[in-house]
Design a protein that fits this description.
single chain; 12 helices; 0% strand; disordered C terminus; mainly alpha
């Protein structure tokens, strides 16, 4: 089976093949992704204590370590955290497998853009994790832990805490993929830079809803996420302009002239 996976053939642009070849490629890429996740899971479970210590650092210094009540809870928490860590470790592999399967159907020059895209998308995901860990988690935890603190004997449930932290980090990693998503949509012709400029005010409204719906709950973290989303949206416009220029869909005048909001 491994020999067959090494020989996974990517179907090229406009190549006519039976549906079975598409399904075989999809199967192989899913298996490769699962194997990568398995290796990442083994590594993260081996070092799960370091991961838990890392996730505990954003907690206020005056609070004790997160507590568990169930007999099996430490083990199940380790499994969940190890799986989340495996997703983070293998994100370049997962992005590549998805990109390599989809893009040949739309872009004849996908080979030239594969590795720059993979490097950019992976870097943005890790930048999103750092953004969530250093800029979003501290104010969110400070607000939530300190809220009505004089009314409660504050104890942190380990399962809820690690689930909350992982949700924020993964969510920040995903929202930082906005420029990557715009790159793909512009490449396949489903997005235009002029459309993004024209509908900027509606995008701002949607981004505000996204920022408010993410885990956190305090105004400061929501504003930090909202500002980051705005910056990513503006960066995505430049990405769309770059792709359109590369593919000859946009003129220099159109690229340089702003479109008024409506």
């Amino acid at each position: 089976m491994l020999a067959g996976l090494r020989g996974t053939r990517r179907i090229e642009h406009k190549e006519e093949v039976p549906i079975t070849d598409h399904l075989e490629e999809l199967r192989n890429r899913i298996i490769i992704s699962i194997l990568a996740l398995g290796v990442g899971f083994a590594l993260c479970f081996w070092q799960h204590e370091l991961i838990l210590e890392f996730l505990n650092r954003p907690l206020p210094a005056n609070l004790p370590q997160p507590m568990v009540l169930g007999v099996a809870e430490p083990f199940t928490i380790s499994l969940k955290v190890a799986f989340a860590g495996a997703v983070v470790l293998t994100i370049p592999v997962l992005i590549y497998q998805l990109y390599a399967y989809i893009m040949p159907a739309f872009d004849p020059d996908h080979d030239r853009r594969t590795w720059p895209y993979l490097a950019g998308a992976s870097s943005l995901f890790f930048a999103g994790l750092a953004f969530g860990y250093f800029l979003v988690l501290p104010p969110a935890l400070g607000f939530l832990v300190g809220y009505d603190s004089e009314l409660y004997n504050r104890q942190i449930d380990a399962g809820s805490y690690y689930g909350f932290v992982v949700q924020i980090l993964i969510a920040c990693g995903v929202i930082f993929q906005l420029p990557s998503g715009v790159f793909v949509l512009t490449t396949v012709g489903l997005m235009r830079a002029s459309w993004m400029r024209k509908h900027r005010r509606y995008a701002i409204f949607v981004l505000a809803i996204v920022a408010a719906s993410l885990p956190g709950g305090d105004v400061i973290s929501m504003m930090i996420i909202f500002v980051a989303l705005l910056a990513l949206y503006e960066a995505s416009i430049f990405v769309a302009v770059f792709v359109e220029r590369t593919k000859g869909r946009i003129t220099e005048e159109e690229a340089g002239s702003p479109v008024e909001d409506v």
